[in-house]
Amino acid sequence: MVRKISTADLRQVYDDHKIWLSTVGEAGRYADLSETKLSGMKLLRINLNKANLSGADLSCANLMGVNMKGTNLKCANMRGAYVLHGANLTGADMSETDLYKSNFTKSDLSNVKLTKSYLYKARLNGVNLSGADMSDADLSKTKLKKANLSETNLQNAILISTDLNGTVGLTIEQLSVVKTLYKSKLNAELMEQVKEKHPHLLEKPK
Q1: Residue 94 · residue 74 · CB < 8 Å
Q2: What's the pTM value of the predicted model, to 2 decimals?
């Protein structure tokens, strides 16, 4: 069950975590915000690096510029969350996270774990997803324009009506292992390669 937390308590958790980070665990306290209700809150540019937010409710929260490098966000609810411009989630665990209509425009999600995550209609334009694990993720109607997908794992990912125009580092080898590319948008060169080598990926899923 998601637990509630007051603004004052949240501020204390953040202050303790800040000390914990600066002293490499010698003082302060590690931020454990797992299963916490933080929906709709403004958490602008704060440092929650390596914090535990697993199962937290961050729906519609404003996380612009936040630092969540290496943070545990597994099974969190981030529906409609704004994690914009300069937000750093490198190496975060976001597996099985609900990211419906979330906005990560121009954020850094390199090496992030997004296995089995739900990214329906999420905005990931210009996002750095290099080295990310997006295996078994649902990327239907996700916007990935100009995103960096170098060495991104797309094994069994669902890409229906996904916008992949202008992506960086995306290869035919990565696309060959997805579940479907039905109605997805691709650079002309990649589309020709898919039509030639894996035309079944463009067919309507059964």
Answers
A1: yes
A2: 0.94
